[in-house]
Design goal:
It contains 17 helices and 6 strands. By secondary structure, the chain is mainly α. The protein has 2 domains: 277 residues, no CATH class; 106 residues.
Length: 501
Amino acid sequence: MVFVEGFHLIVGSLQEASEDRRVTLLEKALDVILNGTFEKMLHFSQDLRNPITILNMLGIILPILGLVILPLIGSLMGGSGTTKIAIIFILYNLILPIAVYLFGINVLSKKPTGYAETNLIEQNPELRKYKNIIIKIGSQELYINPVLISLFIFLVFMIISLIPLIFYALHVDFTFLGANFVDFRQQNGALCEYDKTCYGPFGAGSVLLSLFLPLGLALSIGTYYSIRNKKLIKITEETKKLEREFSGSLFQLGNRIGDGIPVELAFSDVAKNMRGTPTGNFFELVSLNIQKLGADVKRAIFDPTIGAIWKYPSNIIESSMKILMESSKKGPQVVAKSLTSISTYLDRIHQVNERLKDLLAETLSSMKSQISFLTPMIAGIVVGLSTMIVTILGRLSALLLESSTQGQELSLGGTEALTGLFEITNIIPVYFLQLIIGIYVVEVVIILTFLANNIESGNKISGEYKTGKNLYASSILYFFVSLIVTLIFTMLAKSINIGGA
């Protein structure tokens, strides 16, 4: 409705004989569109808080906290540990991430259309090459896809995480923190005899090594996004700086042209006044294309090979320069008026965007803290608690087996009833549980980063670059929190006196 009303005002301005009245209607149309956009974004930011809270609690916090009691519940429920692992994997690594993503996309689909970020970089083959690793060999350039580096990183970390299974296949085990490092068990709870069916691994050492798989997954994806966007993000940031000061530059350019200076010379004058700034560099590049290469204004700006627009890929700058080219056909005064109007528009839309950022600041802050701190911290603590629970369950199982074999009666009660509760086949090894939690953390970080980026700007390059940085930070935090908490809780579990043992 706002767009339709604004468009009607624009159409109405064409029928006005008075120039002042026509300009007034056009300014009114601009007010209607900007105020309407701001009002819609205001309602959107207000409506966004509850869905984001629900997303954080039901989609992330509660599922992770629920994993704390899964080892205990799993030991009390019938069914093999392998089946339970498969169910948890499908739930946490497939269903929940998809549900969180779809819920977030549904929330963001209500975001009003506003100030669009540029993705013109995707259209320029000269810039697309920076998505690869470039190695210069003489006058030639060798391009290496960052996927190869990412796969190498992942494979190295995955092999480290598979060491417990390799040790089991090689029949290797040793003592670690008062228990076996790998710790595979027979169905009755006795230590594994490799000619019999064994279950596990249950050792704390196995859990610690399993941490390398989600770390490797996060670092490999983070490395891919970082290499792919390292140079492009610099171009994007430089373009953003240019956009922020472009309104003042357009105003100067419009004044120069309005004073009767040719467009070709006006670019040079403004470039000298703003030397050292992104805008000055842009106008200087246009001027050099005109003076040294003999290009006309259109070719100096838009030529696929030498055009300045490709060095600063921006929808705003592209649209402004296209208006400059069209209005130049009607004389310098029309050009000056058009550029001055665009300058005013850019100033006002910048003000609207700053107000919108203030409205969304609280929501974005909540999502960013969830990504960088809360999720990896909570998940790391959950891994340590689960390790402690499984360690205690394993000790109970072994103790009950020993007492049953010796015909003794524990102070815990009848061993026959308790032995059925703590069967090794029912216990979920924390080795696999940690892999599920770690992969879930990686998925959550990726999803929340892209959702937060879509709320903030919607720029694809920025979103991928932020995802890479967040994956590095959150995965390393998760790794060390899980490592420390697991060691502490394992030693605590070993110090607990169970049944006088």
